[in-house]
Amino acid sequence: MSRPQSRIGIKLHQHVIEVKSKFEAEYRRFALKRNSHGGFQEFYHLLQSLHLIPGVEVLLGYADIHGDLLPINNDDNFHKAVSSANPLLRIIITKKEDEPEVFGTNSLQRRKKGLGLTGLRTATIGSTHSRHKPSLLIGQPQDFRQISSIIDVDILPESHRRVRLHKHGTHKPLGFYIRDGVSVRVTPQGVEKVPGVFISRLVRGGLAETTGLLGVNDEILEVNGIDVVGKSLDQVTDMMVANSHNLIVTVKPSNQRNNVTHRVTKSSGSVGSAGSSGSARDSPSPAAQSNPITASNSIAEGDSEDEEDDCDLIMENDSLLTHQVINSNLRDSHDLRPLPQSISLPNSMAASMISNHNGNSEESLREDGNIISL
Amino acid sequence: MKRFRRHGHETQRDRLKQELYQFNKTVEHGFPHQPSALGYSPSLQLLAIGTRSGAIKLYGAPGVEFMGLHDENAAVTQVHFMPHQVELVTLLDDNSLHMWTLRGHKGLSELLEIGRFTLTGPPGAPPSVTRVTSVLAHSSGELLLLGTEGGHVFIVEVPGFRELEERNISLDQVANSVPEDYIGRRNLEHVESLQENPVNPNQVVLGYGRGLMVIWDLEKQCAMQHIPATQQLESVWWTEDGEYIISSHSDGSYCRWMVGGEDMNDDEEKSDIPYGHFPCKAISKIVQLPTEGGPPFLLFSGGMPRASYGDRHCITVIHGKTHVALDFTSRIIDFFAIRDGPQFSEDPSALVVLVEEELVVIDLQTEGWPVIQTPYLIPLHSSAITCSHHISAIPLKLWERIIAAGAMQYTHYSKKPWPITGGQNLAPDPPQRDLLLTGHEDGIVNFWDASGVCLYPMYKLSTAGVFHTDSDLNDNMNQGTEGEWPPFRKVGCFDPYSDDPRLGIQKIHLCKYSGYLTVAGTAGQILVLELNDEAAEQTVEAKVVDLLQGQEGFRWKGHTRLDVREEPVLFPAGFQPFALVQCQPPAVVTALTLHSEWKLVAFGTSHGFGLYDYQQRNNVLIKCTLNPTDQVALEGPLSRVKSIKKSLRQSFRRIRRSRVSLRKHHVNNAAKLHEANARLEAELAEMELAPVQRKIEARSSDDSFTGLVRTLYFADTFLTDSSHNTPSLWAGTNGGCVFAYMLRLPPAEHRAEEPVTAHQAKEIQLMHRAPVVGIVVLDGHGAPLPEPLEVAHDLARSPDMHGSHHLLVISEEQFKVFTLPKVSAKMKLKLTAIDGSRVRRVGVAWFGSSRTEDYGESGLVVLTNQGDLHIVSLPHIKMQVHYPCIRREDVSGIASCVFTKYGQGFYLISPSEFERFSLSTRYLVEPRCLVDAPRQSFNQHRPPSFGASSPQRSTSESEDAEVLQEIQKSLEGEQTSFLENNVKNAVA
Fold this sequence. Notes:
The structure holds two protein chains of two kinds. Chain A is of the alpha+beta class. Chain A has 13 helices and 15 strands. In chain A, strand 14 and strand 15 form a beta hairpin.
């Protein structure tokens, strides 16, 4: 994968990388210290000043070692880009308006092919992906809503699969059932039969079925990083329901033919989610950086995104004392319609979710929940 | 370095945890489930009860309790104390014998098993040869006589359980000594009874099932006399003077035989069938006790006329002209009499009867033979327990008033002190007065003194009087009609039959400072009661509250509202109802709280919640929490049954329809039809044989019962701005929703006229939608707010109103702290997401350190659906410790758990028993008692630590008793076999 190359880079060029950036028809060449560089923002401003385009909204892309055009839009993929410079780092700058032309189908097409080659089910991204024609515009990764991903391929045994289901604000059911069963384990004492928990049924049209990553008779090994050994079916059920907004299940698929295999020599493209490219071992992959939950450390205790998902809906009647009139009206409306909250809950919640995702900077928005002032 | 320091900090916290928390199951309160054997030691003054689950429990003076458990899970069929010793022998269902002793250890006695033994017969003999049917603990204290099913009597030396083979009494030896003409070809059957001659310990009577009794001389090893009874033998009693043997039989007769008479055939002095003429049931046990200068007491169980009263559980007591058939509430396990005098050989003073559901003690020396109130072994389940509520540290004034009210109710009990007085209770006096309230299915609330080891009844409140019920007419039927034969008298309080399940008590809340009590029941009734020291006649006015608030299109299909008496009702002294709220629909009340300072009661059902002002007697607030799509909650409990039926019907219809349609389309294609049918059948089979599976789905607002109100909480806190605290009401629902209302109370001088108002201030919808089971407001110091009136009574520090308050919301899955007044999440602790368990019960408790007197912490005590107890620190909500407590399968045990404010708790281990546990190192209520060995064995095996640590006063007292005990002739032979292992009953 990318690691050997980056090593070579270090060897040959010690501390400096060559950067060639292109904006429309202009090129700039400059050197960048490998270690002293700052974050993405700094780099972005540097490019803006070099190309004399301060204030112009641009998108950055770089050509990786396979010739794919990959975006640079945060610290992580910037570092990735820097580390993969061999020795040259090619930067392509596009204006935000004409973004689709440059960030177009070409590179994404290639990546899609790559996906196919790895033997992964394309259903990951859903049916919309496969249906579109080459000419169709593809939006930015952030325009898609990720519904599932395979994660931690690098740290799990090949026979296991860690699947993350994103419930988000959708009304689509998770849609699967679990049952008790008998699992066969190989132990130093020989083969042993132990009780296990298995997927017993997938609901048609449910999230679990549409991702294609879970199947009937898959054995459930972990729920959000916690081993289910010794836990009853009801306990596992409760754990899954409690984590349903951000469910990560590690399964041992009953069908072992579609496993993701580690390819050390050949660089595998993405292993799962739409935004990922490469599953580097020590440098965080884009998949990882867009979802801070990767594995071990973050699963056990609630992390920031989890918090975000877990936001509670809080309605306050703060100005009760100061604005008597308004509030009495409100109260009247409560009295007239006995169930305003509970009826409107799903909608208002969805609305709040959206506002949260758009990064709406209302004063009512808090990092750990939405507050709607009445 | 940093790491090291942090580590050091953790070990310090660990040490603190050890000083604060420890888990102990301390004592079992109530009546043992399924008792199966009874034993009594007059010399120790201890009572022993064996149960079907293999437990053995010893009781003496109140507070003196011991418990042991046999490793085998077999029922205890017989318990025998060794005369004049601290040992006792138990016989189990699996034919094993066990020796137990009370051993002194660090100044306290412990019940220990010291030996076990199973009879081994000759090789190849059938198991019946060694199947023990009767046991006699010989008065020498060294021998056990074991009668077996095969008719042999084995003699075993104790405590070592050494078989004395040469002294065994074989069936052949007995048969050879019996005249040919009597024995004929008939089998003597099993040994039914073994009794020792009270005046000659060398003589025992062997009673065989067939009826033959043989007096055997243990020394000479020969038969001395034969008593040829002809009826199946049930029990044998040797009178105290040694002159007569009384036998009872399966036909309901008993006979008196002279001992030592020359002519055997004329021995039968008297045969009587007390309830004769028509066939009678067996007399399973008979006892005759002499009185000084009066006629003897004759006591026997059973013997009732089979056809008319065969279903009664009776013990007949005959003394002179007085003849009473005590009619018990459940099957009689066994009984014995306690006798007066220093040697326990004088007049019988009390009759102790163990029946399946309670222990009844009858005073035989007071006119009318009244019942003596038992200080322990109370049947908690006299009507099924439906809820419980614990209040710690009751003020003395309220305590005394409740006791006074209770004393007026318990007048029909004997004034005599409790007659079983063995052992000394060395437990320190309880640190505080604790009250446990249990609500029952029949609308009764029982008040128990839960301060110490004995759960003692204090007062009984009946709420049924407020309503019209069917039971009103039945009461008269229980009165015995005059001149009835047999002369029945009902005794005991076990009465599991509720006349109206709607009366059932579901929630209780008592304010210990003001004496206001509120109880809520199954049919949506909420009563507010106040303590009145005198009886009063009053009308209770009902206020109907429509929780649906105009939601239409729904029909309640559950039970109807209770019918309130409109005429004035006379309420006895004690808690008297003065206000009644009835919810509409009359669904079961699921949450209840009372604020005595504000004089408000909040209540909730599956439809919504309300706030009632009990001073002005009107409703302040009604809030419907119902999800309009939630049909199940709307229709009531009955509809669920219907819906199952409906869904079954629908599925059958669907099958039928699909069959029909298949025929239509493929009528010509037989093969296809066959295939389709096969598939259908497979589907059906799958439906039936589908393994247990669980749906994995996020909870949604459409789930059933999301509107059910789980918890209600009053708090004086900062609800709207951070400078003014206001009274508030908080409600949590099953759907993870929290409602907060700001309450405006008129000033105290206008409290009676101006209305109380409530405005909704906040609503929080927890994203994970798990049921909200607890709400607590923490003050500026992070301490839970005190109870109402607690500060006014100087019993709690007033809360810190300067710092910011926090709201702790406890759902079944998470603990979450929010800031106030602006609600935003501050921290949380996930439970279910981590280990899959859910919060079932939660309480706030204060834990004092065992090392430093003045250090303590508040914490949350949590019981999960896995039966584990967790302690969560406040205000940082960190897991501290956890202990497994209840089996996860024991759903009713988990549901019954209540916590005290000082880290103890109670849960039901059977319908009739509370297990008490403690999580605190400082507050621990457990039996600490000492039983002195009778003098005989005292001198021989004196435990080294015994004399030094036992209090001086009691030692001298007990020594006096021991001197007297030494010369006594005891009644050890009383514990004969009982009904349970009686083979012949089935035959007869």
